[in-house]
Design goal:
single chain; alpha+beta; four-stranded mixed β-sheet; two-stranded antiparallel sheet
């Protein structure tokens, strides 16, 4: 059994699927209000404009259906497990950027694109079991696991879209929870141990970093922050020292410095 499976938590398929649908609906509502000037605004994602970011959000969801419509890989083919996914993203950045720019150019009518993606997801995904194997860009994954990665894509890029446009886009609670938990578990996977407790209330608590393991009472090394700050730290949108200086994260104890372990996603 791969090491990543030892710590992997289970996610309810129906709740995750509904979370993806709900968060995509929030994004769709926001994108539908954008003017041409807003769509041309820059984002914090390199050269991407808001239009390209919006196209990428649609692509993140449409990939579920695209993968489901491909032939199912054989069951004996090596799988990419959920806790391996966060560390697989950096190497695909160039291909993702190219596909995003192509989609934004090919589908300028974002309202039509989003309607098509939502309708296709609603028609194709419900009723498919969580263990259905998908040929994804990073390798073979279970549908249940791949849907969890879609909550990360949607939540992270919803935050990017809000930052670029100033819109207050809602977060589906289950989508935010799944995203937070996966990224917290990825930290524990990257730095296994029990000397530091990382708290992201109300969704996640993990122990990580090699050293003396805490078993009783108040842990000597504690990091605590809110879900969106944690997600920004884990994805490099916020730097560790800047978050500390802004009191967006608290860290107590000589081992409670995560600066060298972040970000987790490329």
């Amino acid at each position: 059994m791969p090491p990543s499976q030892k710590r992997a938590r289970r996610y309810d398929l129906a709740r995750t699927r509904t979370a993806v649908q709900a968060q995509f609906a929030h994004v769709r509502s926001a994108v539908g209000t954008l003017t041409p000037d807003q769509l041309a605004l820059p984002t914090r994602l390199g050269e991407w404009t808001v239009r390209e970011l919006a196209a990428h959000l649609a692509m993140a969801v449409s990939n579920v259906c695209r993968n489901l419509e491909l032939p199912e890989p054989p069951g004996d083919k090596p799988q990419v497990f959920l806790l391996e996914w966060p560390f697989s993203t950096a190497g695909r950045a160039g291909r993702i950027a190219d596909a995003t720019r192509a989609l934004a150019a090919e589908r300028p009518d974002l309202d039509a694109l989003y309607a098509e993606v939502a309708d296709r997801f609603d028609a194709v995904v419900p009723g498919v079991g969580e263990d259905r194997l998908l040929p994804t860009r990073v390798g073979v994954m279970r549908l249940g696991d791949f849907l969890v990665t879609r909550t990360v894509e949607l939540v992270v890029h919803t935050d990017d879209l809000s930052a670029a446009t100033g819109l207050d886009i809602p977060y589906d609670r289950q989508a935010l929870a799944a995203c937070t938990r996966l990224l917290a578990d990825a930290l524990a996977e990257k730095a296994p141990g029990g000397s530091v407790e990382v708290r992201v209330p109300p969704f996640a608590v993990v122990q990580c970093v090699p050293g003396p393991k805490h078993t009783r009472g108040t842990p000597p090394n504690v990091v605590e922050t809110d879900p969106l700050t944690w997600i920004r730290l884990a994805t490099g949108r916020t730097q560790w020292r800047a978050a500390l200086d802004a009191a967006e994260v608290s860290a107590s104890g000589e081992r409670a410095d995560l600066g060298d372990l972040l970000p987790l996603l490329g």
